[in-house]
Sequence to fold (314 residues):
Amino acid sequence: MFKSLPLFYFPTTICWLDDDKLFLEAADNLFKEKFNSIFFDNPHKAYKFLSSYETSLPKNNFIKSLSENDIYDKQDHYPVDINIGKISQLSEKPHRRDEISILIIDNNMPDIKGIDICRQLSGSPYKKILLTGETEANEIINAFNQGIIDKFVSKDQDIIDNLQKCIVELNNKFFYSQTENLLPDIETSKLTPLADPIFIDFFYNWCNSNKIEEFYLINKNGSFLVKDKNGNKTYFIVMSEKAIKDFIKLNDDALDKAGKMLEEISIGNKIPFFGVRKESWEFDYAEWEKYLYPAQIIEGREMYYWATIQNGNN
Fold:
């Protein structure tokens, strides 16, 4: 279990390297329904490709310095802003699934060992799974402990099940590592569900039940734009008790015009969602009703109120 949800996730590409062409053909047949893959049977061609590979994820573009902030020039302070809009925009990038998240590499090849290639590729963003059919325990364990490889799997009768488990785990780890340092900035003003183990477990189970393949954070409350395997969009909207109280306080001058709607929100019957990067004050109170959605409850470290909006065009 990770400490928090990654702020985005989408299907990626697995790179396979093995001099055994029959094994690669079998891997293609077995994994093509679930994963995108590229295959190499020549270690030198694979190394040339991988050593020049550059991630397309704009990791450093999710934050920007706030030079206009009062404490910008003060010692030991460097205020930043997280551009959540950049995260949701990833969902529209046409080649996002070409991102390589995992290298699966055979250790026993004629010209060079897979472990040596992994050593030469240390520092690369993708995770590495080493396949081995021999008893090289000490060398492999040392490589694992040094971070040269992330997993190792024996080429035995259980290889398919073991690989599937490792791929799922390392894909999650790959995306978690992309944004793990951003969560403290998101939670500066209030806690979110993103780091609550109960919410994390609920959200992953909900995604599995609804065949969700992609998700992208759309606001600081912890709401996501999600996509299923057919690319159909849904908004998974969530607000904590604290977020709801903040919303009521922000709009307390509207009690005479929107009192009944605010009451429905305050008791958790409904939650508001006015659209991605849109706020309540942009809409006339007469329009609010169509932006309120029946809420369900998750009990975690706080009470969370959630709803889903199908085919959201907000």
